[in-house]
Design goal:
Arc Repressor Mutant, subunit A; elongated; four-stranded antiparallel beta sheet; alpha+beta
């Protein structure tokens, strides 16, 4: 099952929370043009996936509806490896593709990989078509290397 547009939107904009916590949120942090971002918010409100929070202090705050929560639960969970092997994701993405690099890092962390170096992630998760599609969409497929193998302790 592929992720819906709603699930993808939530994943990609969830990284904004990191920026807000660190106090560096700016419009440049958005993964979408501002107009697209607001269009998607309106669209998901119409679909009943988001609704305004009824608070005087934060009148423009949106929250997930039960329908939105259910849709998120239906998302495909990462497939854990049962063969005793691990997957290593290595990448060398140029600076001019910084946004793509950050999206990839957030994707890997949210899908159960652990960061062992700035551009190296390890997980007991199978390489998925979803990761391949993301890399192709971000135009970083040639900058990405996937290795499967057994990790032994010394």
């Amino acid at each position: 099952m592929h992720k819906t547009e709603f699930q993808e939107f939530l994943e990609q904009t969830a990284g904004l929370l990191d920026d807000m916590v660190l106090g560096r949120l700016s419009i440049r942090s958005l993964y979408y043009p501002r107009s697209t971002y607001y269009y998607k918010l309106r669209k998901f409100k119409k679909q009943g996936l988001l609704k305004p929070q009824n608070r005087k202090k934060y009148p423009n705050t949106l929250i997930l509806t039960d329908k939105g929560r259910e849709l998120i639960k239906k998302s495909k969970a990462a497939v854990k490896r049962t063969d005793g092997l691990s997957t290593i994701v290595l990448f060398d993405i140029p600076e001019e593709k910084r946004k793509a690099r950050n999206i990839l890092r957030r994707y890997l962390l949210r899908n159960g990989y652990i960061q062992i170096q700035k551009s190296a992630f390890l997980g007991q998760i199978r390489f998925s078509d979803e990761l391949r599609e993301l890399a192709e969409e971000l135009k970083i497929i040639t900058d990405l290397k996937i290795i499967s193998g057994r990790i032994d302790q010394i």
